[in-house]
Design goal:
The chain has two helices and 16 strands. The chain is an all-beta fold.
């Protein structure tokens, strides 16, 4: 496949970090990609091999970048009720273009997400392993682990805490998730998940500040979901999520002569979400009404996964959590 997109952004001042990026961001990207999928029934293996070439052109020639990005994935079923997953691939993020375009390129390799919204032009190397096991007709369990190593070059304007220029930035993430899915009856089901995520952000090493002044972050999330499905098309979900997070942050000095202060902070809290859906006649779609943060819980949470570098309020990946009670409705239509 082939994809072309361009972007034209200006007035790039980040109100959170207080940093101004040099000039306007004008440029384009060209993406060439191909994937080969092969099933080997004799050994119960499904293979995925891919190669992507991404060419980024920027008005600032120092930020031009071209990368060949290999992809490899495997799903092996050693037993009828067990699957093993393995993946290794490289990807190059560009948050500006991804907010404006979509792609038909596969979003996952052997079940591991290959798109991320870390810093723009972030060369990300991902290694993933996983297992899923069906215990019986009512119970399934699984575990997935992934490591992400990111590298990027950023052009930073001079500011009170840095002389500016080109800086190499490294970011490292580790993600793990364990889950248990249980069909209680023909109408009710229960799911229990536990997510463990670590992040080391290298921005402060490059520019004397960082995205949200973040250096390290450890997050634990445990959503417990009770679901109801009726043959008539009525369904409901009640989700209680326990979140515990701790981080190391940089406190920006008032003047360039003041020392940078390191702050340790943490918080833990419960959030409750609920929704009710109705299937339209002749399966034409669904109408949903729901609420997030049902009990209007006040909390502190660093949602790096939905962070847009230039302006968090303009992120292209909205957060899963909201900081006040939020009611919503949605309508999806199906055309046959």
């Amino acid at each position: 496949g082939f994809q072309y997109s361009d972007y034209d952004l200006s007035n790039l001042f980040n109100s959170t970090t207080g940093l101004t990026f040099n000039g306007e961001l004008d440029g384009s990207q060209r993406r060439y990609y191909g994937y080969w999928n092969r099933s080997l029934p004799s050994i119960e293996v499904d293979l995925t091999l891919g190669l992507e070439r991404l060419e980024l052109d920027d008005d600032n020639d120092d930020l031009d970048r071209s990368e060949n990005l290999p992809k490899m994935g495997m799903i092996w079923s050693p037993r009828a009720n067990t699957q093993l997953f393995a993946a290794w691939f490289k990807s190059l993020s560009d948050v500006y273009a991804q907010r404006q375009t979509e792609t038909l390129m596969p979003s996952q390799i052997a079940g591991f997400n290959q798109f991320n919204n870390l810093t723009d032009r972030n060369l990300n190397t991902t290694t993933g392993l996983g297992i899923e096991h069906r215990i019986n007709n009512y119970l399934r369990a699984g575990l997935r682990l992934s490591h992400h190593k990111g590298e990027s070059t950023q052009n930073i304007a001079p500011n009170p805490f840095s002389p500016g220029g080109l800086f190499d930035v490294e970011t490292e993430q580790n993600n793990g998730v364990a889950w248990l899915y249980w069909n209680l009856t023909d109408k009710f089901s229960l799911s229990l998940e536990h997510h463990y995520e670590t992040l080391k952000d290298g921005w402060e090493q490059a520019i004397g500040s960082s995205t949200d002044n973040l250096e390290e972050l450890v997050t634990r999330r445990t959503p417990i979901t009770l679901s109801y499905h009726h043959p008539s098309g009525l369904s409901g979900h009640l989700i209680n999520t326990y979140i515990k997070q701790k981080g190391i942050f940089w406190k920006n000095p008032t003047t360039p002569f003041d020392p940078v202060e390191v702050v340790n902070d943490s918080d833990s809290f419960w959030l409750t979400d609920a929704s009710l859906s109705f299937r339209l006649p002749k399966r034409r779609g669904h109408f949903t009404i729901g609420v997030k943060n049902l009990f209007d819980q006040d909390y502190r949470y660093e949602d790096f996964s939905s962070f847009a570098l230039l302006e968090p309020r303009d992120t292209w990946v909205p957060s899963d959590y909201v900081r006040e009670r939020f009611w919503f409705t949605s309508l999806s239509l199906h055309f046959h």
